[in-house]
Design brief:
With 181 residues, the protein is an alpha/beta fold. The chain is built from 8 helices and 5 strands. Strands 2-3-1-4-5 form a 5-stranded parallel sheet. The N terminus is likely disordered.
């Protein structure tokens, strides 16, 4: 049996809203014995208001600035499992702040599946509070796909069981080349 070594940096989950970044992140963090941080929850805690309210009162650019500031803080933090918002990757330079040694994991989900998942959620998604959420989600995908493609690992989360997702990510966290399939 070969010895397994955990990677030294953060594991960062990226993907469209509804891909499961927070849900999977919590599970992986627990299994690795690492802290978990959901960017939206932390930003809400610090700002004393919801993401939806931040968007409405201050605009998306102010929210993105809070994401960048949080990322800069986390660059020096011990290894964690991080779940930034779906648009975090659009902030210039944030990926470089955490990688290396951090590893980016793209939880790939089609725009139509993301809308279906979010329609069942009680969480308010400011970018989807529009007349045509499907068109908005497709536009998000179109503008972010190349940024998500720069991830260290891409996993299709539409048709893969949660247990298999977790095993794949744990293999990556332990410095192994995960088998995807």
């Amino acid at each position: 049996m070969t010895e397994r070594h955990q990677i030294d940096g953060h594991l960062i989950f990226v993907g469209l809203p509804g891909a499961g970044k927070s849900t999977l992140g919590r599970t992986v963090a627990r299994l690795l014995g690492r802290p978990f941080l959901d960017f939206d929850v932390e930003i809400e805690r610090r700002a004393g208001r919801s993401v939806a309210r931040l968007f409405a009162e201050c605009g998306e650019s102010a929210f993105r600035a809070l994401e960048v500031a949080l990322t800069k803080e986390l660059a020096a933090a011990p290894p964690m499992v991080l779940s930034p918002g779906g648009g975090w990757v659009t902030n210039p330079g944030v990926v470089a702040l955490l990688r290396p040694p951090g590893r980016i994991i793209h939880l790939r989900l089609s725009p139509s599946a993301a809308v279906r998942r979010l329609s069942r959620s009680r969480v308010v998604r400011p970018l989807l509070e529009v007349e045509d959420p499907a068109a908005t989600m497709q536009a998000l995908w179109d503008s972010r796909a190349n940024l998500y493609a720069a991830a260290d690992l891409e996993i299709d989360v539409e048709d893969v069981a949660a247990q298999r997702l977790t095993e794949t990510i744990l293999a990556l966290a332990h410095g192994q080349t995960p088998e995807i399939g």
